[in-house]
Amino acid sequence: MVTNYMDVKEISAQVESASEPFRLLLDQMHRVIVGQDDLLRRMFVALLSNGHLLIEGVPGLAKTTAVSCLARGINVGFQRLQFTPDLLPADLIGTLIYRPHDGTFAVQKGPIFSNIILADEINRAPAKVQSALLEAMQERQVTIGKETFKLDDPFLVMATQNPIEQEGTYPLPEAQMDRFMMKVLVEYPTKEEERQILDRMASTAPKLEIDTVMKPEDIRQARSAVDQIYMDDKIKDYVVDLTLATRDPQAYNIPIADWIHYGASPRATLALSLGAKASAFLAGRGYVTPQDVKSIAMEVLRHRVIITYEAEAEEKTSDDAVQAVLDHVPVP
């Protein structure tokens, strides 16, 4: 446990060194991806926190490209799964294949056995497939027949949702959404960024090459450094207050009690804590600041706060509720 200034200083020196490969990786990814800094940094936070990411945005905003670039930059396995209404759990996790010559069954592993999984348009698959993926995310293992197989480490699921064309979709239940550490909304690029995209990508064969700057062992070492980052008791209390304020806003004098049907679960508290440490790590600091918590609070809480019908009638969203919490809970 960190007890004095010298401990924090020592941890900061370790973090500064351990976070350097991530800065190199960000530079490499920007050779292909224009803008989208928030998305790329949230991907790093999820990777460092051993969490999963739900990405929502209209088609064509480089969501798939960003995930594949991340896999290339770390030199790990990558599988893109296009979720469709006719997908079966066996298409995802694998199945048993009968061998007629000796009358036995052999395990045929599915594409889930990789390091980085892109679940494209996750809400287009039926509930059985969604639950098979979410079980793998939570337990980090898959059962095929009578055998249970551990998934590779690191194992990171990045699922995309399309906010348009909702026909033929199976929205993720709120309890399953809770399994995702963060939900990131990807916005359109600015005019300047769109011009850069045109200059860089307006070709029949655009170059999407980046150099490998990390290996899986670097991720494991970085996670160890993240665990050592110092978080003051006042900031821990702030994290808990943010989560509790989504459940009982009246206790914090926040006038949104009529907006919230269900607040965030304890998973949100853990995600806020780990995400804040990961944000401090990426900044090269050995200690967490309140801004580290606030910088990821919206992504951690927005899909965990369920608003009432009355709030929907007033055209309020979960983002509005979370923003009210962030505005009213005192910052240490």
Describe the structure.
This protein has 332 residues and is of the alpha/beta class. It is 47% helix and 15% strand. The protein has helices at residues 5-18, 20-29, 37-49, 63-74, 89-93, 127-139, 174-177, 191-201, 216-228, 233-247, 266-282, 290-301, 309-313, 318-328; strands at 53-56, 78-82, 94-99, 104-109, 116-120, 141-144, 147-150, 156-161, 182-185, 260-262, 306-307. Helix 1 (5-18) runs antiparallel to helix 9 (216-228), helix 3 (37-49) packs across helix 11 (266-282) and helix 10 packs across helix 11. The chain starts with a helix and ends with a helix.
In short:
The chain is α/β, with parallel strands linked by helices. It is 47% helix and 15% strand.
What labels describe this entry?
single chain, 332 residues
Based on Cα principal axes, name the global outline. globular
Structural class: alpha/beta
User: What's the total count of β strands?
Assistant: 11
What's the helix-strand series? HHHEHEHEEEHEEEHEHHHEHHEHH
Rounded radius of gyration (Å): 21 Å
Give the % helix.
40-55%
Strand order of the largest sheet: 2-5-8-1-9
What's the total helix number? Answer: 14
Biggest sheet details: 5 strands, parallel
Give the assembly state of these chains: single chain
Mean pLDDT: 84
End-to-end CA span: 21 Å
Uncertain segments are none
β-strand percent reads 5-15%
